[in-house]
Amino acid sequence: MSLAHQFAAYSEWRTRLSASLGDFQRWLAANDLADAQSDLRLSQLLERLREDRLNVAFVAEFSRGKSELINAIFFADYGSRILPSSAGRTTMCPTELLFDPQKAPRIELLPIQTRASNSSVSEYKRFADEWCVVPLDVESAEVMQEGLRHVSETLRVSPEEAGRLGFEVGEDSSDLYRVGEDGLVEIPRWRHAVINFPHPLLKQGLVILDTPGLNAIGAEPELTLSLLPNAHAVLFILAADTGVTQSDLAIWKEHVGSGGAGKRGRMVVLNKIDGQWDELKTATEINAEIARQVASCASILELPERQIFPVSAQKGLVAKINGDSGLLSRSRLPVLEAALSGELIPAKREIVRESTENEFHDVSLRTRGLLESRLSSLREQLGELTELRGKNKGVVEYMMGKVRSEKDEFESGLQRYYAVRSIFSTLTNNLFGHLGLDALRQTTQETRNAMLEANFSSTLSDAMGGFFGRSRNALARSAGEIGEIQSMMEAVYKKFSVEHGLKLGTPAAFSLLRYEKELDRLEAWCNTHLNTMRTLLTNDKRHIVQKFFEEVAVQVRRAFERANKDAETWLRAIMAPMETQVREHQVQLKRRLESIKRIHQATDTLEDRIVELQGIEKQLTQQIQSLEEVAGKVRALLLPHVVALNAA
Fold first, then answer.
1. Which of 97, 265, 420, 499 is found 20 to 30 A from 125 (Cα to Cα)?
2. Please, which pLDDT band fits residue 2 given cuts at 50, 70 and 90?
3. 228 with 106, same domain?
4. How far is 353 from 499, CA to CA, in rounded Å?
């Protein structure tokens, strides 16, 4: 199955999953089983599925055929080239292709002058008036291609202006940004481009990131700190006619290959193999030459040969448009597509499946526990009333005293619950004292002051290292508080389950490991690009300080923001079952006592009450069956083998 078809199957599975979750949420509301916490968690889950994206990044130096490869893999069904593809530089700025149904088809272009500010591209995405908008006529391929050429536009500015905007100006002919005969430097006109295009794959959530070459990547650190690391797949493109050049190797080592050659979703494409299609050579000789090139690339990049895919994007595109299966096979594009779909889609699907399953399991288990608790309490009450048949008032009084004693015992136990709430509140405050943004802001300000006051490179370096040390320490202390909360709630869940028969299960777990790893990644980037002896000695201190806080500290802040949000969700999730079950048990005890009181006052109501409870018992049993039916539809879609079959 092609990547396009497998992605379409994944999108269809995701749509069915969203529909089933929506049915479950509506069922809870219709049966008066929804509460604020469950509704919030299900709404967040549905929102995540609606906003789910599959991010594929294409990275290469100029003239390696990135745009042609994107056209061949994703847009051949359009019958024409969507992205401009020609000799030379066609993509001058990072370009995202996606579809937002809230906007008309268009290109949004962020002027290069915004680099002079202290704001990232993601910050500018909040301010629509900062972007230039070019409408896209999707009915005409020619008009659309003309519009898309805006991503190739350039400006000529003074060397000083080029330097201020982050472009390194050189004197050699090999330098990308150099002074021309007119004394000016040619730079990209745009800092970032977003193409909103209603292509079927983009409608289903595909996001394609087309990146420019080494110099442009280095000038926009958000690419290497955020966009590329968060991509589900990164295709690194080489050209068969040039092999691995020095700049190719620099991109691979600094931006793509870091983190290990076996990192998921990282593939190397050796493009333009049609250059080897010599009519004077046999197919065996041609294949042997391509194999030698693959082996050479694998050796230089320190990769297994199976991770390098020789293709001809141009011939593959032509073959798809013309329906030439022979040429398509010769282009080897299907081999790359099979590898991409075989690794990318299943990995992405498994991430979505696991996160959805964990959230849904907690909510459905909690609902089932609530219904079973009601049923258990009702059956206990029904048993008590059945035993009262034919008994005198003395027995009824004894039973009333027994239930009253249970109620008093439970209310006495509530003192422990309230004490737990108090301790829980204290531990929560401690947690956010370490993890909260106020503490991080203080760390950031103190680090900035230390860096600005530094007189030596070593002091500057120590300040950067100290920032990560304090941030990591904050996570470690937070993890300690999380462990205490987890242990306490496990003990309380167990105690209330044993003593009062509450069906609480196991409290939800939570870990900050992903944020610890994110700090490790950001510190490694910092130590490679900023906190090096060469950088510290050859750059102005204020420039280093600005780069550190604009590019690194802001990413740390975003990690802490996500950690805070996840911690808040977990804290609500871990306390909610306890609160619900305690309230429910109180209500049931009160009803049992009132029922026996009524029977004590008028014995002729006993049979009526028994019949009434039997009716409620039947309703509860049917509710549990109905719950299993509606929840079972969601679980069926979340089974690993079912998910895999949907993609087959």
1. 265
2. low
3. yes
4. 36
Better pLDDT: 467 or 496: 467
Structure tokens at 404: 């009253």
Classify burial at 47, counting beta carbons within 10 Å of its beta carbon; exposed 0-12, middle 13-18, buried 19 or more: exposed
When the pLDDT of each residue in the chain is averaged and rounded to a whole number, the result is: 84
418 shares a domain with 319 = no
Nearest one of 628, 626, 648, 646 to 637, comparing CA atoms: 646
Q: Is 202 found in the same domain as 59?
A: yes
CATH code, domain carrying 96: 3.40.50.300
Beta bridge partners of residue 132, listed in sequence order = 109
Q: What is the pLDDT of residue 119?
A: 75
Q: Report if residue 303 sits inside a domain.
A: yes
Contact yes or no for 489/181 (Cβ under 8 A): no
Q: Would you say 21 and 49 are in contact if contact means Cβ atoms under 8 Å apart?
A: yes
State whether 303 and 449 are in the same domain: no
Q: What is the residue range of 510's domain? A: 388-601
- The total number of structural domains in the chain stands at 2
The band of 435, judged by pLDDT with boundaries at 50, 70 and 90, is very high
**Residue 37 parent element (H or E):** helix 36-50
pLDDT of 485 > 90? The answer is yes
User: Is the same domain home to 266 and 394?
Assistant: no
Rounded Cα gap, residues 346 and 344, in angstroms: 6
132 lies in some domain: yes
What's the rounded Cα separation, in Å, for the pair 337 and 70? 11
- For residue 211, what pLDDT band results from cuts at 50, 70 and 90? confident
Please list the residues that pair with 209 across neighbouring strands.
57, 96
Question: 3-state class of 105 per DSSP?
Answer: coil
Give per-residue pLDDT as tens, 352-361. 898 899 889 8
Determine which of 109-123, 424-438, 598-612 has the lowest per-residue pLDDT on average: 598-612
96-115 as b/e: b if 16+ CB within 10 A: bbbbeeeeebbbbbbebebb
Whole-angstrom Cα distance, residue 471 to residue 440?
Answer: 7
Q: Is residue 632 part of a domain?
A: no
With beta carbons less than 8 A apart as the criterion, state whether 524 and 556 touch.
no
**Stretch (H or E) spanning 195:** strand 190-196
Residues 452 and 585 in one domain: yes
The pLDDT tens digits for 277-329 are 988 888 899 999 999 999 999 999 888 898 899 999 999 999 999 999 999 99
**Do 320 and 394 belong to one domain?**
no
Q: Is 422 exposed, middle or buried (0-12, 13-18, 19+ CB in 10 A)?
A: exposed
pLDDT at 648 over 50: no
Radius of gyration of the chain (CA): 32
Angle between helices 437-453 and 457-500 (to 10 degrees): 170
Q: What's the CA gap between 591 and 597, in Å, rounded?
A: 10
The pLDDT of residue 624 is above 90: yes
Domain-embedded: residue 316: yes
Whole-model pTM: value is: 0.70
Spatial separation of the C-alpha atoms in residues 45 and 17, rounded to whole Å: 11
Are residue 447 and residue 324 in the same domain, yes or no? no
